Amino acid sequence: MSNQLAISMDGVCKDYSHFSLKDVNIQLEQGGIMGFIGPNGAGKSTTMRVIMGLVLADKGEVNVLGHAIPADQARAKMDIGFASEDMSLYPTATLQWHMDFVRNVFPDWDQQYADALVKRFDLHHDLKIKGFSHGQKIKAQLLLVLARRPRLLLLDEPTTGLDPVARREVLDELMEVLADEERTILFSSHNTKDVEQLSDSITFI
Asked: How many other CB atoms sit within 10 Å of the CB of residue 1?
């Protein structure tokens, strides 16, 4: 593992009328897998959105993959893959349509790897997203992120809402996908068992 930092957050704060994120400090080395644990509403999703530059911190400094956030977020995002349980795919479009769309946006798309993930996740290129189960939709999101070969992978509660069988299937397949990779991963959950299974370090919020 490199001693260079993929994520550095120093004294990050964000205030809303109903919620405040106070003094978040995270250091994640490149190649590391960090579990990000906290109860619902603790600020896990807000923290990830600050890392992505989708939310502007009121105080503190954020650096991702050597890029200052939000000033240089456009360059950073080319190397960041983000998946969240509350993200939506186009229900009337096929998985192949989504794959073609992402491939046209991100030059590092790996078609051979994507096709392998379709088989591994037991998905179907020509099936419309509205015909997918919830677990299949989660797998499709992960496929679209992983096949871009991002240097940093942000997973925001990706197993939320899955039944126990689908949750185990997603975690097992995700572990297999990540086994030989050198990606840096920040994985948030309120489920400590999920985090312990995937992570080599844990941060609480």
From this structure: 11
